[in-house]
């Protein structure tokens, strides 16, 4: 795919929505495309994460391991989904395993590239911080709603 296609795809990712084409171009130029064949694992739960992935084509089954050892289906990541957004900023472990449901492509955004974007464009850093805070607040609200199940 052409660089312009990657820029259009990034513009659809909620975390990057509203960024100018020049900023998206910088990120797309420094990112790396990877092909993943059906059944191949993109990453495993518990592994150290140093990048995020935008699903460019295909889809990925997301799963995690429960305390009893059973595998839980967490959902499917389709085109335009950003996987492991926090890994682009900080050292974290993968919270799930991502396995290709079909032949797929991802765009890998490594931490140094994303940090460069945040350093060169402080307005982007402020915007990203706000969006991540909103995502975390929504997750906390969702978890609070389940508190009764664990009492």
From TrEMBL:
Name the residues that span the membrane. Answer: none
What Pfam families does this protein's entry cite?
Answer: cNMP_binding
Q: Which domain of life is it from?
A: Bacteria
Q: Which CDD domains match?
A: CAP_ED
Q: Residue ranges of the Cyclic nucleotide-binding domain? A: 15-118
Q: Which InterPro entries match?
A: cNMP-bd_dom (IPR000595), cNMP-bd_dom_sf (IPR018490), RmlC-like_jellyroll (IPR014710)
Q: Which protein are we looking at?
A: CRP-like cAMP-binding protein
Q: Which organism is it from?
A: Mycoplana azooxidifex
Known PROSITE patterns for this protein?
CNMP_BINDING_3
């Amino acid at each position: 795919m052409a660089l312009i296609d990657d820029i259009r795809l990034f513009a659809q990712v909620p975390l990057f929505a509203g960024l100018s084409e020049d900023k998206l171009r910088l990120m797309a130029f420094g990112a790396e495309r990877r092909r993943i064949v059906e059944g191949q694992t993109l990453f495993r739960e518990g592994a150290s994460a140093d990048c995020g992935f935008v699903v460019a084509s295909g889809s990925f089954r997301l799963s995690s391991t429960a305390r009893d050892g059973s595998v839980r289906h967490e959902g499917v990541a389709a085109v335009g989904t950003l996987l492991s957004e926090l890994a682009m900023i900080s050292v974290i472990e993968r919270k799930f395993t991502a396995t290709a449901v079909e032949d797929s492509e991802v765009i890998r955004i490594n931490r140094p590239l994303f940090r460069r974007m945040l350093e060169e464009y402080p307005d982007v850093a402020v915007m990203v911080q706000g969006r991540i805070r909103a995502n975390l607040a929504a997750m906390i609200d969702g978890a609070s709603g389940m508190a009764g199940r664990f009492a």
